[in-house]
Design a protein that fits this description.
The chain contains five helices and 31 strands. By secondary structure, it is α/β, with parallel strands linked by helices. Among the domains are: 109 residues, no CATH class; 50 residues, no CATH class. The strands form six sheets. The protein has a 16-stranded parallel beta sheet that branches. α3 links the parallel β11 and β12. α4 packs antiparallel against α5. The longest helix has 17 residues.
């Protein structure tokens, strides 16, 4: 770091003034040193120690004074010394920024105590409001809703966000969304999919809402919603929008239009089930999927496009109409009625596991030449090959055989 005045103890959230120091410049010795310290190794993983505002020019030759606030519980620890601190160091909890042990501290400020404006308070929130149902903090007054004092009521989190023109809410507990909470245009962030978001809405209050790093479930009532880097392991109903980079092991009932990108099956014992919701005229686009997908309840005007990286597609017998276009490499089990339009021009059936069995059967046929096994071979090949049929004729003792 720039100079040897302080050291940082991130576990105890202490900035420790070194022995022999008599003067501290807050901007250089504390704030700038902290910014340099954050860049060392993995120090950025710890809670921020400062936020600051001020220093804006008010004329060609003047600027407003800078103010420095310790945040997230950080304090300056001073022991066995007498020091002068310049200038404008505060703590966002309203308490002293210092922990003093047998020491004397003169903390100089540039003016009388300030009343923080809405702009200054917004800087304290950064770009987000924090929600934690288990938090003891309630209300809509600063600093409630900051990382140090997450608000325990999602409605109050929305009010705080709207007050300071913020659109990000970071959740630190499970979240149950009802019609009381209009989260349209908000982005909701979890933490490593640890927290469960459940939607129980009967009105469209999640339009253009983005969810990141959560485990999510429930009824979205036709809202256009985006789910990114998350987990869906319980059913989702009546959703429009986008799902990206997400682990899927449940039923997704589509309201109208849905795009899945770079998703994958997360449970080997459960497939993704796409339910087109009967008579909804849905459009579904699945891009770069890995795993097993089962399609159910398609009707005449439904359109489904599936791009498979690896895995299996199952078309359920409940699929009575619509167009299903499958591309990529994988397996296909088709139990749908003849009413569907199935497009397989870009699909390659993976027959690697079947070919060995077919080879053994073929050897048996060559040896025993029974018509039953001719038919069996035909069934194997016709079920696993999805390119135009070829006609081969074999003569065994002058008996023609239609192979596939």
């Amino acid at each position: 770091m720039g100079n040897d005045v302080v050291t940082f103890d991130p576990i105890n959230k202490l900035i420790i003034v070194l022995t022999g120091i008599t003067y501290i410049d807050v901007g250089i010795d504390l704030y700038s040193n902290w910014k340099e310290w954050v860049l060392i190794d993995d120090n950025a993983k710890y809670d921020a120690a400062f936020f600051t505002f001020g220093g804006e020019p008010i004329s060609e030759f003047q600027s407003t004074p800078p103010y420095y606030f310790l945040t997230n519980g950080w304090k300056v620890y001073v022991e066995n010394m007498s020091i002068t601190v310049d200038m404008n160091l505060y703590s966002d909890d309203g308490l002293s920024p210092f922990i003093i042990n047998n020491a004397s501290v003169t903390n100089n400020t540039s003016d009388v105590p300030i009343v923080r404006s809405d702009v200054e308070k917004r800087l304290a929130y950064g770009d987000r409001v924090y929600f934690d149902f288990n938090s003891p903090y309630v209300g809509i007054e600063h600093p409630v809703g900051t990382i140090a004092q997450p608000v325990n009521n999602i409605q109050q989190a929305i009010i705080i966000a709207n007050t300071y023109n913020l659109n990000k809410i970071y959740i630190r507990s499970d979240l149950n969304i009802t019609d009381d909470y209009n989260l349209s245009e908000f982005s909701i962030y979890g933490d490593k999919n640890e927290y469960i978001v459940t939607s129980n809405i009967s009105s469209i209050i999640l339009n253009n809402t983005y969810f990141y790093n959560v485990t999510i479930q429930g009824d979205f009532n036709g809202s256009k919603t985006s789910i990114i880097d998350s987990i869906i392991e319980n059913d989702i109903y009546n959703i429009n929008g986008n799902i990206k980079n997400t682990q899927l092991s449940s039923t997704i009932k589509i309201d109208n239009n849905l795009i899945l990108s770079n998703c994958f099956t997360g449970n080997s014992n459960k497939e993704l089930i796409i339910d087109t919701n009967n008579n909804k005229n849905t459009k579904t686009l699945i891009r770069s999927y890995s795993g097993e997908v089962k399609v159910i309840n398609t009707n005449d005007n439904d359109v489904i496009n599936i791009e498979l990286i690896a895995g299996k597609i199952i078309l359920d017998e409940s699929c009575s109409g619509g167009t299903i276009d499958i591309r990529g490499v994988g397996y296909l089990e088709n139990y749908a009625s003849s009413g569907i339009t199935l497009v397989l021009d870009g699909f390659i059936m993976d027959i690697s596991n079947i070919c060995h069995i077919n080879f053994l059967i073929f050897i048996y046929i060559l040896k025993y030449k029974t018509r039953f096994f001719y038919k069996l071979l035909y069934r194997f090949f016709s079920s696993c090959l999805n390119f135009p049929t070829l006609c081969w004729w074999f003569s065994f003792k002058s008996t023609p055989f239609f192979c596939w």
